[in-house]
Amino acid sequence: MNIWSFDFVWAFLLLPPLLYCLYKCKIALHPHYFPHLHFFGTLGKWGNLDWLLKALAVTLMVGALATPVMIDYADPRNRNGIDIVLSLDGSGSMNASGFSQEDPRAPRFEVVQKIASDFVMKRIEDNVGVVLFGDFAFIATPVTYEKEIIAEMIGYLNHGMAGQNTAIGEGIAMSVRALRGSKAKSKVIILLTDGENNSGAISPKEAVGMVQREHIKLYTIGIGEKGEFDSALLKQLAQDGNGKFFAAANQKELQAIYDEIDTLERSSIKSKQHTFEEHYFQWFGGGALVIMVMLMWRRRIGG
Protein backbone atom coordinates (compact mmCIF):
# COMPACT_ATOMS: atom_id res chain seq x y z
CA MET A 1 0.00 0.00 0.00
CA ASN A 2 1.40 3.38 -1.05
CA ILE A 3 0.34 6.45 0.93
CA TRP A 4 1.01 10.06 -0.08
CA SER A 5 1.81 12.55 2.63
CA PHE A 6 3.66 15.82 3.30
CA ASP A 7 6.44 16.30 5.85
CA PHE A 8 5.51 19.96 6.40
CA VAL A 9 1.82 20.15 5.56
CA TRP A 10 1.52 23.45 7.45
CA ALA A 11 3.35 25.12 4.54
CA PHE A 12 0.05 25.13 2.64
CA LEU A 13 -1.12 27.85 5.05
CA LEU A 14 1.06 30.19 2.97
CA LEU A 15 -0.92 29.48 -0.19
CA PRO A 16 -4.12 31.55 0.42
CA PRO A 17 -2.31 34.83 1.27
CA LEU A 18 0.16 34.35 -1.61
CA LEU A 19 -2.60 33.72 -4.15
CA TYR A 20 -4.61 36.65 -2.78
CA CYS A 21 -1.60 38.94 -3.11
CA LEU A 22 -0.93 37.64 -6.61
CA TYR A 23 -4.48 38.55 -7.57
CA LYS A 24 -4.77 41.91 -5.78
CA CYS A 25 -1.28 43.35 -5.49
CA LYS A 26 -0.39 45.84 -8.21
CA ILE A 27 2.83 45.52 -10.17
CA ALA A 28 4.73 48.77 -10.62
CA LEU A 29 4.73 49.68 -14.30
CA HIS A 30 7.09 52.07 -16.10
CA PRO A 31 5.16 54.39 -18.46
CA HIS A 32 5.82 54.25 -22.20
CA TYR A 33 4.24 56.66 -24.68
CA PHE A 34 2.97 55.57 -28.09
CA PRO A 35 1.00 57.72 -30.50
CA HIS A 36 -0.88 54.84 -32.05
CA LEU A 37 -2.40 52.67 -29.30
CA HIS A 38 -4.65 50.89 -31.77
CA PHE A 39 -1.65 48.78 -32.83
CA PHE A 40 -1.75 47.08 -29.42
CA GLY A 41 -4.48 44.62 -28.57
CA THR A 42 -5.87 44.09 -25.07
CA LEU A 43 -4.44 41.37 -22.83
CA GLY A 44 -7.70 39.45 -22.95
CA LYS A 45 -7.35 35.73 -22.43
CA TRP A 46 -3.54 35.90 -22.40
CA GLY A 47 -3.65 38.08 -19.30
CA ASN A 48 -5.79 35.47 -17.54
CA LEU A 49 -3.44 32.72 -18.73
CA ASP A 50 -0.46 34.57 -17.25
CA TRP A 51 -2.21 34.83 -13.90
CA LEU A 52 -3.14 31.14 -13.93
CA LEU A 53 0.45 30.19 -14.73
CA LYS A 54 1.72 32.39 -11.90
CA ALA A 55 -0.82 30.87 -9.50
CA LEU A 56 0.24 27.37 -10.57
CA ALA A 57 3.92 28.22 -10.08
CA VAL A 58 3.23 29.57 -6.58
CA THR A 59 1.20 26.47 -5.73
CA LEU A 60 3.98 24.17 -6.90
CA MET A 61 6.60 26.11 -4.92
CA VAL A 62 4.50 25.85 -1.77
CA GLY A 63 3.98 22.15 -2.50
CA ALA A 64 7.74 21.67 -2.78
CA LEU A 65 8.20 23.49 0.53
CA ALA A 66 5.65 21.13 2.13
CA THR A 67 7.87 18.22 0.96
CA PRO A 68 5.60 15.60 -0.64
CA VAL A 69 6.53 12.05 0.28
CA MET A 70 5.26 8.57 -0.57
CA ILE A 71 5.57 5.74 1.97
CA ASP A 72 5.30 2.16 0.74
CA TYR A 73 3.71 0.23 3.61
CA ALA A 74 4.09 -3.01 1.67
CA ASP A 75 7.81 -2.76 2.43
CA PRO A 76 8.40 -4.85 5.56
CA ARG A 77 10.79 -2.19 6.87
CA ASN A 78 7.86 0.20 7.19
CA ARG A 79 5.59 -2.11 9.17
CA ASN A 80 4.90 -1.54 12.81
CA GLY A 81 2.79 -4.42 14.13
CA ILE A 82 2.73 -7.88 15.65
CA ASP A 83 3.19 -11.46 14.46
CA ILE A 84 -0.07 -13.41 14.42
CA VAL A 85 -0.86 -17.07 13.69
CA LEU A 86 -4.45 -18.11 12.97
CA SER A 87 -4.83 -21.70 14.14
CA LEU A 88 -7.98 -23.05 12.49
CA ASP A 89 -9.88 -26.25 13.25
CA GLY A 90 -10.26 -28.27 10.05
CA SER A 91 -11.88 -31.35 11.59
CA GLY A 92 -14.91 -33.13 10.14
CA SER A 93 -17.35 -31.30 12.44
CA MET A 94 -16.46 -28.01 10.71
CA ASN A 95 -18.60 -29.26 7.81
CA ALA A 96 -21.75 -28.70 9.91
CA SER A 97 -24.17 -26.09 8.56
CA GLY A 98 -26.49 -23.61 10.27
CA PHE A 99 -23.74 -21.30 11.59
CA SER A 100 -24.51 -18.53 9.11
CA GLN A 101 -27.84 -16.74 9.31
CA GLU A 102 -27.35 -15.34 5.80
CA ASP A 103 -26.69 -18.77 4.27
CA PRO A 104 -27.87 -21.54 6.63
CA ARG A 105 -26.57 -24.25 4.31
CA ALA A 106 -22.98 -22.93 4.34
CA PRO A 107 -20.51 -25.12 6.29
CA ARG A 108 -18.91 -23.60 9.38
CA PHE A 109 -15.49 -23.87 7.80
CA GLU A 110 -16.58 -21.79 4.79
CA VAL A 111 -17.85 -19.03 7.10
CA VAL A 112 -14.62 -19.12 9.11
CA GLN A 113 -12.58 -18.87 5.89
CA LYS A 114 -14.32 -15.65 4.87
CA ILE A 115 -14.05 -13.97 8.27
CA ALA A 116 -10.43 -15.07 8.73
CA SER A 117 -9.49 -13.78 5.26
CA ASP A 118 -11.10 -10.40 5.98
CA PHE A 119 -9.24 -10.25 9.29
CA VAL A 120 -5.92 -10.93 7.57
CA MET A 121 -6.44 -8.15 5.01
CA LYS A 122 -7.09 -5.63 7.81
CA ARG A 123 -3.77 -6.36 9.52
CA ILE A 124 -1.79 -4.12 7.18
CA GLU A 125 1.17 -3.63 9.50
CA ASP A 126 1.40 -7.21 10.79
CA ASN A 127 2.95 -10.51 9.81
CA VAL A 128 0.35 -13.29 9.68
CA GLY A 129 0.54 -17.08 9.33
CA VAL A 130 -2.06 -19.88 9.21
CA VAL A 131 -2.08 -23.33 10.83
CA LEU A 132 -4.73 -25.97 10.10
CA PHE A 133 -5.31 -28.82 12.55
CA GLY A 134 -7.41 -31.98 12.72
CA ASP A 135 -5.83 -35.35 13.62
CA PHE A 136 -2.55 -33.52 13.13
CA ALA A 137 -1.52 -29.94 12.39
CA PHE A 138 0.42 -28.32 9.58
CA ILE A 139 1.52 -24.80 8.64
CA ALA A 140 -0.66 -23.72 5.72
CA THR A 141 1.23 -20.43 5.29
CA PRO A 142 4.36 -19.28 7.14
CA VAL A 143 4.31 -16.01 9.04
CA THR A 144 4.61 -13.35 6.33
CA TYR A 145 3.45 -9.85 5.35
CA GLU A 146 2.05 -11.02 1.99
CA LYS A 147 -1.61 -10.64 2.94
CA GLU A 148 -3.07 -11.39 -0.49
CA ILE A 149 -1.24 -14.72 -0.62
CA ILE A 150 -2.40 -15.64 2.90
CA ALA A 151 -6.03 -14.79 2.15
CA GLU A 152 -5.85 -16.77 -1.10
CA MET A 153 -4.33 -19.77 0.67
CA ILE A 154 -7.07 -19.72 3.32
CA GLY A 155 -9.56 -20.04 0.46
CA TYR A 156 -7.79 -23.20 -0.76
CA LEU A 157 -8.10 -24.97 2.60
CA ASN A 158 -10.80 -27.56 3.27
CA HIS A 159 -12.15 -29.24 6.38
CA GLY A 160 -10.82 -32.77 6.63
CA MET A 161 -7.45 -31.94 5.04
CA ALA A 162 -5.74 -32.67 8.37
CA GLY A 163 -8.10 -35.48 9.43
CA GLN A 164 -11.52 -35.76 11.02
CA ASN A 165 -10.62 -35.41 14.72
CA THR A 166 -9.59 -32.41 16.83
CA ALA A 167 -6.00 -32.16 18.09
CA ILE A 168 -6.05 -28.81 19.91
CA GLY A 169 -2.64 -29.41 21.47
CA GLU A 170 -1.14 -30.07 18.04
CA GLY A 171 -2.74 -26.91 16.66
CA ILE A 172 -1.18 -24.78 19.41
CA ALA A 173 2.21 -26.49 19.23
CA MET A 174 2.43 -26.07 15.45
CA SER A 175 1.48 -22.40 15.81
CA VAL A 176 4.34 -21.94 18.28
CA ARG A 177 6.69 -23.52 15.75
CA ALA A 178 5.40 -21.12 13.07
CA LEU A 179 6.39 -18.21 15.32
CA ARG A 180 9.89 -19.55 16.01
CA GLY A 181 12.43 -17.08 14.68
CA SER A 182 10.00 -14.17 14.99
CA LYS A 183 11.67 -10.95 16.12
CA ALA A 184 8.39 -9.25 17.00
CA LYS A 185 8.04 -8.02 20.56
CA SER A 186 4.39 -9.13 20.50
CA LYS A 187 3.38 -12.57 19.20
CA VAL A 188 -0.19 -13.87 19.16
CA ILE A 189 -1.95 -17.16 18.43
CA ILE A 190 -5.69 -17.09 17.71
CA LEU A 191 -7.01 -20.64 17.98
CA LEU A 192 -10.51 -21.46 16.69
CA THR A 193 -12.30 -24.77 17.21
CA ASP A 194 -15.80 -26.23 17.37
CA GLY A 195 -14.92 -29.42 19.26
CA GLU A 196 -13.05 -31.07 22.09
CA ASN A 197 -9.45 -32.26 22.14
CA ASN A 198 -9.59 -35.95 21.15
CA SER A 199 -6.43 -36.56 19.13
CA GLY A 200 -2.75 -35.73 18.82
CA ALA A 201 0.52 -36.66 20.52
CA ILE A 202 0.83 -33.27 22.28
CA SER A 203 -1.66 -32.45 25.02
CA PRO A 204 -3.14 -28.95 25.34
CA LYS A 205 -1.33 -28.59 28.69
CA GLU A 206 2.04 -29.33 27.10
CA ALA A 207 1.25 -26.98 24.22
CA VAL A 208 0.31 -24.06 26.44
CA GLY A 209 3.59 -24.59 28.29
CA MET A 210 5.34 -23.98 24.97
CA VAL A 211 3.29 -20.80 24.56
CA GLN A 212 4.40 -19.55 27.97
CA ARG A 213 8.07 -20.29 27.35
CA GLU A 214 7.99 -18.38 24.05
CA HIS A 215 6.10 -15.43 25.64
CA ILE A 216 3.23 -15.75 23.18
CA LYS A 217 -0.29 -14.50 23.85
CA LEU A 218 -2.99 -17.12 23.20
CA TYR A 219 -6.59 -16.27 22.29
CA THR A 220 -9.13 -19.09 22.00
CA ILE A 221 -12.47 -19.09 20.17
CA GLY A 222 -15.12 -21.77 20.52
CA ILE A 223 -17.81 -21.80 17.83
CA GLY A 224 -21.11 -23.63 17.67
CA GLU A 225 -23.85 -24.38 20.15
CA LYS A 226 -23.17 -24.59 23.87
CA GLY A 227 -21.70 -27.98 24.76
CA GLU A 228 -20.24 -28.64 21.31
CA PHE A 229 -16.81 -27.33 22.28
CA ASP A 230 -14.85 -27.66 25.52
CA SER A 231 -15.35 -24.17 26.93
CA ALA A 232 -13.61 -25.03 30.22
CA LEU A 233 -10.46 -26.13 28.39
CA LEU A 234 -10.48 -23.13 26.05
CA LYS A 235 -10.91 -20.73 28.98
CA GLN A 236 -8.02 -22.32 30.83
CA LEU A 237 -5.78 -22.25 27.76
CA ALA A 238 -6.51 -18.55 27.19
CA GLN A 239 -5.92 -17.78 30.86
CA ASP A 240 -2.61 -19.66 30.93
CA GLY A 241 -1.65 -18.04 27.62
CA ASN A 242 -2.29 -14.51 28.95
CA GLY A 243 -5.06 -14.06 26.39
CA LYS A 244 -8.84 -14.20 26.33
CA PHE A 245 -11.53 -16.80 25.60
CA PHE A 246 -14.44 -16.08 23.24
CA ALA A 247 -17.53 -18.06 22.24
CA ALA A 248 -19.57 -17.58 19.08
CA ALA A 249 -22.87 -19.26 18.33
CA ASN A 250 -23.20 -17.76 14.83
CA GLN A 251 -21.42 -15.85 12.09
CA LYS A 252 -22.34 -12.41 13.46
CA GLU A 253 -20.87 -13.18 16.88
CA LEU A 254 -17.71 -14.60 15.31
CA GLN A 255 -17.26 -11.45 13.21
CA ALA A 256 -17.60 -9.32 16.35
CA ILE A 257 -14.91 -11.43 18.06
CA TYR A 258 -12.42 -10.94 15.24
CA ASP A 259 -13.24 -7.22 15.21
CA GLU A 260 -12.42 -7.05 18.92
CA ILE A 261 -9.16 -8.94 18.47
CA ASP A 262 -8.34 -6.57 15.63
CA THR A 263 -7.84 -3.87 18.26
CA LEU A 264 -4.74 -5.65 19.61
CA GLU A 265 -1.93 -3.32 20.62
CA ARG A 266 0.78 -2.87 17.99
CA SER A 267 4.48 -3.16 18.73
CA SER A 268 7.59 -2.77 16.62
CA ILE A 269 8.50 -5.77 14.48
CA LYS A 270 12.07 -4.65 14.02
CA SER A 271 14.48 -3.79 16.81
CA LYS A 272 14.89 -0.32 15.32
CA GLN A 273 12.20 1.94 13.95
CA HIS A 274 12.72 2.93 10.33
CA THR A 275 10.58 4.72 7.80
CA PHE A 276 11.60 4.35 4.18
CA GLU A 277 10.21 7.22 2.13
CA GLU A 278 10.49 8.53 -1.41
CA HIS A 279 10.42 12.34 -1.70
CA TYR A 280 9.03 14.23 -4.68
CA PHE A 281 9.69 17.89 -3.80
CA GLN A 282 12.12 18.15 -6.75
CA TRP A 283 9.28 17.51 -9.22
CA PHE A 284 7.17 20.28 -7.68
CA GLY A 285 10.12 22.67 -7.66
CA GLY A 286 11.07 21.70 -11.21
CA GLY A 287 7.53 22.32 -12.43
CA ALA A 288 7.50 25.78 -10.83
CA LEU A 289 10.86 26.57 -12.45
CA VAL A 290 9.62 25.57 -15.91
CA ILE A 291 6.55 27.81 -15.56
CA MET A 292 8.66 30.76 -14.40
CA VAL A 293 10.98 30.34 -17.41
CA MET A 294 7.91 30.28 -19.68
CA LEU A 295 6.58 33.50 -18.13
CA MET A 296 9.97 35.21 -18.49
CA TRP A 297 10.17 34.11 -22.13
CA ARG A 298 6.65 35.39 -22.83
CA ARG A 299 7.48 38.75 -21.26
CA ARG A 300 10.71 38.99 -23.24
CA ILE A 301 9.15 38.33 -26.61
CA GLY A 302 6.22 40.54 -25.72
CA GLY A 303 8.27 43.58 -24.95
Question: How would you portray this structure in words?
Answer:
It is a single chain. This protein folds into two domains: 2-30 and 43-73 and 276-302, no CATH class; 77-261, Rossmann fold (3-Layer(aba) Sandwich). Helices cover 40% and strands 17% of the residues. It is built from nine helices and nine strands. The strands form two sheets. A six-stranded mixed β-sheet has the order 5-4-3-6-7-8, sandwiched between helices. A three-stranded antiparallel β-sheet has the order 1-2-9. A hairpin with a 3-residue loop joins strand 4 and strand 5 (137-144). Helix 1 packs antiparallel against helix 2 (44-66), helix 3 packs antiparallel against helix 4 and helix 5 packs parallel to helix 6 (204-213). The protein is elongated, with a radius of gyration of 31 Å. Residues 268-274 have low confidence and may be disordered.
Q: What are the SSEs and their pairings?
A:
Layout: E1 2-6, H1 15-24, H2 44-66, E2 68-72, E3 83-89, H3 108-122, E4 127-133, E5 137-144, H4 147-156, H5 168-178, E6 187-193, H6 204-213, E7 217-223, H7 231-240, E8 245-248, H8 251-261, E9 277-279, H9 281-302
Parallel strand pairs: 3-4, 3-6, 6-7, 7-8
Antiparallel strand pairs: 1-2, 2-9, 4-5
Helix pairs in contact: 1-2, 2-9, 3-4, 3-8, 5-6
| CATH level-two architecture of the largest domain | 3-Layer(aba) Sandwich
**Rg, nearest Å:** 31 Å
Strand order, largest beta sheet = 5-4-3-6-7-8
Beta strands, count: 9
Low-confidence stretches: 268-274
Under CATH, the topology of the largest domain can be stated as Rossmann fold
State the share of residues found in helices, binned by percent: 40-55%
How large is the count of helical segments? 9
CATH superfamily heading of the largest domain: von Willebrand factor, type A domain
Number of domains: 2
Shape: elongated
Distance between the termini: 51 Å
The main sheet comes to: 6 strands, mixed
